[in-house]
Amino acid sequence: MNVASADTSTPRFDVFAASCPSRRLLDTIGDKWASLVIVALGLEGRMRYTELSARIAG
Which residues, including other chains, have CB under 8 Å from residue 47's CB and lie 6 or more apart? Predict the structure, then answer.
């Protein structure tokens, strides 16, 4: 059986390094409001901005 080698053309990132691009995404997801938006959309599905704003009071 022939095993193909892993594709090495995809860049590898280290999320523990401060210079990693994924840090920006993690900072955004970790934000209080972003977390509330993600949960609201996950529970309710597609929502207009006014519906979302009313759902997330505060």
Answer: 40, 41, 55
Number of alpha carbons in the 13 Å side-chain half-sphere of residue 48:
2
**Per-residue pLDDT of the chain in tens (58 residues, 90 and over written 9):** 555 555 567 778 888 888 888 888 888 888 888 889 989 999 999 999 999 999 988 6
State pTM to two decimals. Answer: 0.53
The 10 Å Cβ neighbour count of residue 25 is 11
Core vs surface per residue 26-57: b (16+ CB within 10 A) or e: eeeeeeeeeeebeebeeeeeebeeeeeeeeee
